[in-house]
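Hybrid cluster protein-associated redox disulfide domain-containing protein
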Amino acid sequence: MARARLDDPDLPLADLMREWPQTIPVFVRYKMLCVGCLVSPFHTVTDACAEYELEEGMFLAELKRAAGLP
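Predicted structure tokens:
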């Protein structure tokens, strides 16, 4: 099975945080309730950014930095 890509638009947040737990502080810093949320297996970064009115490209770049990805 291929490794998940953090920038996959269909990647559920629960999978993202399980694969790259070092991204969790980014969600916490923005006061997002995604960590441990019951819908995190269904929501994506796009969904979360829309819900919290964040610019998706900027937020995704922060997640990538936290995960140590280029």
